[in-house]
Write the structure tokens for this entry.
Amino acid sequence: MTNYGWLSQAQAVDGLALAETTPGPLIMVLQFVGFMAAWNHPQGLSPTMSGVLGAFVTTWTTFLPSFLFIFLGAPYIESLRGNRHLRGALGGITAAVVGVVLNLALVFGMAVIWPRGLAGGTDWFAVVLSLASFIALYRLKTDVLWVVIGGGLIGVARSVLGR
């Protein structure tokens, strides 16, 4: 994987946390990445102007292809529904999306549990909170909203009280 230095590992985790804790599509984390990448590398503009332009360009290029596919492809969807070859291709795309989501979970999980790399030590607080959240969600069937609010409050308390 190539590192372009667009944003730090902490900023990437912040972007995912922002996307997970606010209403709206998860894809908006891309807008945060576009903003932060442009903010960190303004290229002659003010950081604010560069960040706003970076967020706009990221949002535009994220959603424009989808809208084009929908508007141009909508008339043909019904005729393609029964196509056996297309069904196989869509199955492959679904598998690829699952792989991307799994990869993201692993990358962000490692960034939270080992924030200073594997040699930097394990953040045991993050491990315990992750396990408690997993148990609350899957074993106790707690609503995800309460798990997010509880995790946020525990994180704020930890920050206020000091590590």
